[in-house]
Design goal:
Length: 217
């Protein structure tokens, strides 16, 4: 076990012993940030609305691992257990980024264009996210990475599911205040431009090995 992995292990177990939170931002002594995601806890009567939390968590985790192994831009998995998963920090959600008054508009538009391209690449693989709202896209200044896959299905996505994805992303962009229409336009134009550049027959990508050691419970 490397020093980096050991520090992740220590910070992770410290968070696991703390009062339960579904999502926790953790940090090692060296400043490495990562997220601990756990099974959500809520009253049984909400199962009728949300479904069983264990099933929702397992669906999200299995989908994340599936997409990672397909080479999709998702945060690297650092550790996992029966009721948790640890992933690297992938930057700010687009919702938070676009609402930050200290961020220049040109940088926000750049992130929105990257989101459109990321969604187009996913669709070119005949996959659909299921709910690609701005809060489910993270931007670190270099790339967009997708998170939260409770509505993801590994089955081949047709035009309807892809159109639904795109519609959700555009509506989420429009909901970002006065600049929302500009964000939506940038996302859509980047999506369409990326689609035009995609070959008609996309090869099946080889699984990308996770080079980061994982801590198993």
């Amino acid at each position: 076990m490397t020093d980096k992995t050991a520090e992740i292990h220590v910070a992770m177990h410290k968070a696991l012993k703390a009062p339960h939170q579904r999502v926790t931002l953790c940090q090692t002594r060296r400043g490495l940030r990562f997220w601990l995601k756990r099974v959500e806890r809520f009253a049984p009567h909400l199962w009728l609305v949300k479904g069983k939390p264990e099933q929702a968590f397992d669906r999200d985790r299995q989908s994340h691992l599936y997409l990672w192994n397909r080479g999709v831009a998702v945060p690297r998995v650092l550790a996992e257990g029966s009721d948790y998963i640890v992933v690297e920090d992938a930057g700010s959600s687009l919702t938070k980024f676009c609402k930050d008054a200290d961020v220049a508009t040109v940088d926000k538009l750049k992130a929105c264009r990257a989101a459109g391209r990321a969604l187009a690449r996913l669709h070119a693989m005949d996959l659909a996210h299921g709910r690609p709202a701005f809060r489910d896209m993270c931007w670190d200044g270099q790339q967009i990475r997708l998170i939260d896959f409770e509505y993801f299905s590994p089955s081949k996505a047709g035009r309807l599911r892809k159109a639904r994805d795109l519609g959700i992303a555009i509506l989420s962009a429009l909901a970002q205040g006065l600049e929302g229409p500009r964000y939506a336009q940038c996302l859509l134009l980047a999506y369409l431009a990326a689609q035009d550049r995609q070959p008609k027959a996309m090869p099946i990508p080889c699984p990308v090995p996770n080079g980061q050691p994982r801590v198993r419970k």
